[in-house]
Write a structure and sequence with these properties.
The protein is about 55% helix and about 15% strand. The protein is α/β, with parallel strands linked by helices. It has one domain. Strands 4-3-8-7-5-6 form a 6-stranded parallel beta sheet, sandwiched between helices. It has a two-stranded antiparallel ribbon with strand order 1-2. It is globular and about 55 Å long. Pfam families: Glyco_tran_WecG (PF03808). Keywords: Glycosyltransferase, Transferase. One of its GO terms (molecular function) is hexosyltransferase activity.
Length: about 250
């Protein structure tokens, strides 16, 4: 399904994770994007990010704003595939299939807590290595080498939008992993540093509100960007209406 400039996979969580793991077995390489309103905003406003996302080849809908926009523009109701749930489901399948995971992002204590909790949840999970997300650009070559030397099959990058996708794109051709995915603040939640919104708030599309309560200074800065995303969708809808009536 085409949404704006993106080819979306209209799959549920389990089938998306299974397809990605099957790709690892068959030697395919997937650059995964869990599309939300902030990503669309950065894509529209940031030329470097726009060009980076042209390398993405597996996109799933995440975020209530994107789901509503799809319903408005495409006249289709699709299921949400939250990035953190996709990451966890991939980890579950990887633990059963002996696939190796590498984590890149967050502070060192956060990523080590994330590893501890992932191993408790999925005892068979093979964590091939990790590195914090606070490094100079000059260190990227060393980190790429570390990831390749770890023989990781799957790379989760938790450095936030747009930094994580820019880094993946910059190093995509040199990385030997088969699944590469930006996961935003998922390490903060899995580590226990932040709480995830209750299920009822997730169903109502209010996760952003819950996150804002926990991180007001960080999240309030994003609201103008989300408003601009909504305005872009409204403009696109009005253009479609005028085109249809003409």
């Amino acid at each position: 399904m085409r949404f704006l400039d993106f080819d979306l996979q209209d799959r549920d969580l389990d089938s998306a994770a299974s397809e990605l793991l099957d790709g690892v077995k068959s030697g395919k390489k997937y650059f995964v994007l869990t599309l939300n309103a902030l990503i669309v905003y950065e894509y529209l406003r940031n030329r470097d990010y726009h060009e980076a996302l042209e390398r993405v080849n597996y996109v799933v809908p995440d975020g209530s704003g994107v789901l509503k926009a799809i319903k408005l523009l495409n006249k289709r109701k699709v299921g949400r595939v939250p990035g953190i749930d996709l990451m966890l489901t991939i980890c579950k399948l990887a633990s059963m299939g002996n696939k190796r995971i590498y984590l890149l992002g967050s502070k060192t204590d956060t990523v080590t807590k994330t590893i501890k909790n992932l191993k408790e949840r999925y005892p068979g999970l093979n964590i091939a290595g990790y590195h914090n997300g606070f490094f100079d650009e000059s260190e990227s070559d060393t980190i790429v080498s570390e990831i390749n030397n770890s023989r990781a099959d799957i790379l989760f990058v938790g450095m936030g939008v747009p930094k994580q996708e820019l880094w993946i794109t910059e190093n995509l051709d040199r990385l030997n992993v088969k699944v590469l995915m930006g996961v935003g603040g998922s390490f903060d939640v899995i580590s226990g540093n932040l709480k995830r919104a209750p299920a009822w708030m997730q169903r109502l599309g209010l996760e952003w509100f819950y996150r804002t309560i926990q991180e007001p200074r960080k999240r309030l800065r994003l609201i103008p960007k989300l408003v601009k995303f909504e305005l872009h969708i409204l403009k696109s809808y009005l253009c479609l209406r005028r085109g249809g009536s003409g």
